[in-house]
Design a protein that fits this description.
heterodimer, A: TIM Barrel, B: 10-stranded mixed β-sheet, 3-stranded antiparallel β-sheet
Chain lengths: 380, 473
């Protein structure tokens, strides 16, 4: 009889050249070995959800068994079937490209789910890199060809939300809301508190059910005043430059903290809160599906694009092309097949993380890492 | 047929021919090998003291599955489908110069009774009206340089070449139209009896042809002429002439062979390979309608087929084998980690009953009298819309969506009890009497799982092979 150790389907399995992780996504029990005892063949079978029981794996298998991460199965003649455990697609970009030699627009258009359009900004309180972290426009008073951008977005049938970030003339905003009303797309206006016109925004909230506000506040605001403005479809994001800001702005109802770092400031204390130790990562509440998706795409930006007022299209601050020179549909169509496509930049593709078996439990690569504000999201 | 009372799918345990035991959990969409002792406990006691059993129980694998079929098709779904339409099929004529004994428009079927009793030719103005309508719809999209799926204009019959003049007019007109970034091409399904006569035009306009031919003379015996003579010699003479005049074009032809009780797959494949350097696409006979005049005759001609194992894995046959198709269907539908496309990654899948395509998502079929249907294979009694004599098009997206949803609602109670509900390929628009005849019980599903995964165990590379060979749109 041949003996196999099979892992339960809800266990996330990750093996790299150096490490191995078996992680129960329901109980969070795990076996994490920095020095993997698995051979090349064992690594292959682990991908399918089992290992062959052998002397060299005794310790590993016993640890997994005692944590209830799997069970033993014996077979006589032909081994049982194990289905691939990674994400599998019936039809996918790669399959289409292999078959047709190109990406079809009808497919690549479906990938776009969210767009942020950066508008004007008359408040010059922060550095460019800080505005990048907030996904807010740099200081500018340029003319915005919003129509040109919005008309291009009509093609994208999976588009769920458009965030208009920054200051915008009333008539332009009004026209945009009227234009987008019939497309069932959510419109979010991200605006600094100093540029926020409560009367106008309140009126728009009453008129357009798909409209909401993301109000950016810093430690200079009166929190009681902010609380008095909060109503349905207004959410407040607090710009956190230091750990003290958390305390000051913590009094705002349902506030979301948004750390904004600067290379010119000492970020040491705030980084201790942002960068995760091993224990926190191993206690993250990721489902088996979350783990699989994290292994395939960058979940923080997949399907998201930023379009600057001058037509520049980017993701995580990395420029792709100008949608005033070429149409957005073609830009996405060309970009998604390329190695530099941020949507598919997972930790497995980052040299610092690719040997780490915790890569799918870690938060995805973020703007902070892209801007070099920290090298890694963990302390491991 | 009596259906079980409880509208749930229970977990299924089964053994393969190689004596391996498995549990399939529909609630978790997971298949896992289990120890033989657990399998025996479950079959005999329905319970177990095993540690595995306790884990499976506490983690939800043993819960029943109940799909509420919450998927919704609304007018915007139909509008989007139509804007991305990639094929229009014209029924050029209902006339045919052959009298194939198994013809689906014959007396063995009531499904197409309305079609059988009506006769006519497509008018150019009908085709022009719908092509103009589609072009203006496609123009709703802003022009883009990104490659789009090509757009096919297809001709179907009867025998489409019996109304060649309309084919010619449509082609010449369509070539002048702007299909907004879509590359245009033409296809035709023909019995090839008139092929040599019209070959120059078809060749010059790069038609992609699908020739209906069941094999060599003995295998093609059901394909008869008006006066009950076999059509084989006439078809072969046409093909030979075209081959001599247009060898390159001829090499692009594809063939469709209907599989019947007189078919021998190995012989047919051998003959097609030798004669055309191709293998045909095999299609089964339509299931005849019980009570139809020629039901018994057609039933006796029907045969189940499988590609023999020694030729089943060649690139041109691998996707045609029913067991391979079943493996693909199971792999694409029964597992939690298999998702239709990247864009569905983040959302919970909301299913709809049956395997019916969303109307107009694959193609549009225009019958000779200007009625619009989702496909040429469906019952003709319920058109989606029509092309009017005043050169307007009636296509009410809301009405199409409502009728589609109400048709699905009627099927829902049966689908919820069917163990093949996750991988159904049955179209409700093809059902006789609006009733699915393929309800699958737990026992039948258990047996299907056992057969399928015995096959997979014995052919460990089959899934990889199928994935490399089959591209699903």
């Amino acid at each position: 009889m041949n003996k196999l150790f099979c892992f339960y389907p809800h266990c996330h399995l990750k093996n790299t050249d150096k490490e191995v992780l078996v992680y129960d996504t329901l109980t969070k029990r795990h076996v994490y070995l920095r020095k993997s005892p698995l051979s090349k063949i064992d690594n292959e079978s682990l991908r399918l959800g089992f290992v062959r029981v052998s002397k060299s794996l005794d310790d590993f298998v016993n640890q997994c068994f005692s944590c209830e991460l799997g069970y033993f199965v014996e077979y006589d003649r032909v081994p049982p079937f194990f289905h691939e455990r990674n994400l599998e697609f019936v039809t996918s970009l790669n399959k289409e490209r292999n078959a047709l030699g190109r990406n079809l627009q009808s497919y690549t258009n479906l990938l776009l789910r969210e767009v942020t359009v950066l508008l004007n900004n008359g408040i010059d309180d922060y550095s460019d890199e800080m505005y990048l972290q907030m996904e807010y426009p740099k200081n500018n008073r340029d003319e915005i060809k919003l129509d040109n951008i919005l008309q291009q977005l009509y093609l994208f049938q999976n588009l769920e939300n458009i965030t208009l970030a920054g200051e915008i003339e009333k008539s332009l905003l009004w026209n945009a809301l009227l234009y987008l009303k019939e497309y069932n797309i959510g419109i979010i206006h991200r605006i600094m508190f100093d540029a926020f016109n409560y009367g106008l925004e309140s009126e728009l909230l009453d008129m357009f059910g798909n409209y909401s506000i993301e109000l950016l506040v810093d430690n200079s605001v009166d929190t009681a005043r902010i609380n008095s403005l909060i109503r349905d479809r207004i959410c407040v994001k607090a710009i956190i430059n230091s750990i003290d800001d958390v305390e000051v702005l913590g009094g705002i109802k349902d506030v979301i903290y948004m750390p904004v770092l600067s290379n010119s400031l000492d970020n040491t204390v705030i980084l201790t809160q942002m960068i995760m130790p091993e224990d926190d990562i191993l206690n993250s509440s990721k489902s088996i599906k979350d783990c699989r998706i994290s292994d395939y795409v960058n979940t923080s930006v997949f399907g998201h694009l930023t379009i600057n007022y001058n037509g520049e299209v980017s993701v995580l601050g990395k420029r792709i092309a100008s949608c005033f020179d070429s149409d957005l549909s073609s830009i996405i169509n060309r970009w998604v097949g390329q190695n530099n496509c941020m949507w598919y930049k997972t930790r497995g593709k980052k040299s610092l993380c690719k040997e780490c078996a915790l890569q799918c439990l870690c938060p995805p690569i973020s703007i902070y890492e892209e801007l070099g504000l920290f090298k890694n999201a963990c302390t491991i | 047929m009596a259906f079980p009372l409880f509208i749930i799918m229970e977990p299924v345990v089964f053994k393969t021919q190689n004596d391996n035991s498995y549990l399939y959990s529909p609630a978790e969409k997971s298949l896992m090998p289990i120890p033989a002792s657990l399998y025996n406990d479950l079959l005999t006691k329905g319970d177990s003291d095993d540690q595995i059993w306790n884990v499976l129980k506490s983690t939800g694998y043993l819960k029943p599955y109940h799909d509420m079929f919450e998927g919704v098709v609304d007018n915007s779904t139909i509008h989007k489908a139509l804007r991305n339409l990639s094929q229009i099929v014209f029924e050029t004529t209902t006339s045919c110069n052959l009298r194939c004994e198994y013809c689906c428009y014959g007396e063995g079927y009531t499904t197409f009774e309305n079609r059988r009793l009506s006769h006519g030719n497509l008018k150019f103005i009908t085709a022009k009206t719908i092509l103009d309508y589609l072009c203006s719809l496609f123009k709703e999209e802003k022009s883009s340089n990104a490659p789009k799926e090509p757009f096919a204009i297809s001709f179907y019959g009867g025998e489409p070449l019996l109304n060649f003049s309309v084919v010619k007019e449509i082609v010449k007109y369509a070539e002048k139209l702007d299909f907004t970034n879509r590359q245009l091409y033409f296809t035709m399904t023909t019995n090839a009896t008139l092929l040599a006569k019209y070959a120059t035009f078809l060749h010059d306009h790069k038609f992609k042809l699908l020739i209906s031919l069941d094999g060599d003379k003995p295998h093609d015996a059901y394909r008869k002429t008006f006066d009950k003579q076999e059509s084989f010699e006439m078809v072969m003479a046409n093909l030979q002439e075209v081959k001599e005049n247009y060898p390159d074009w001829f090499s692009t032809f594809r063939y469709n062979a209907v599989y019947t009780n007189i078919s021998d797959i190995e012989d047919i494949v051998k003959w097609f390979r030798k004669t055309f350097n191709k293998v045909p696409n095999f299609s089964p006979l339509h299931t005849p309608t019980e009570g139809a005049k020629e039901y018994v005759k057609i039933k006796s001609m029907t045969a189940k087929y499988e590609i023999p194992e020694d030729i089943r894995f060649s690139d041109d046959l691998i996707a045609q084998s029913p067991i391979n198709k079943r493996v693909m269907e199971f792999c694409n539908s029964l597992f939690q980690n298999t998702i239709y496309k990247e864009t569905n990654m983040f959302e919970e899948r909301r299913n709809i009953p049956t395997g019916t395509c969303i109307p107009l998502s694959k193609r549009m079929f225009v019958s000779y009298d200007g009625k619009i249907h989702p496909c040429e294979k469906v019952n003709r009694d319920y058109p989606l819309g029509e092309i009017n004599e005043d050169e307007s098009v009636t296509l009410n997206f809301e009405k199409i969506a409502d009728e589609f949803m109400s048709g699905l609602s009627a099927q829902k109670p049966i689908c919820q009890k069917c163990y093949l509900q996750m991988c159904c390929t049955k179209c409700m628009l093809c059902f006789n009497d609006k009733t699915c005849k393929d309800f699958t019980s737990k026992q039948q599903f258990t047996s299907l799982l056992s057969q399928t995964f015995s096959y997979v165990e014995n052919h460990p590379d089959i899934i990889k092979l199928l994935k490399n060979n089959i591209i699903i749109k």
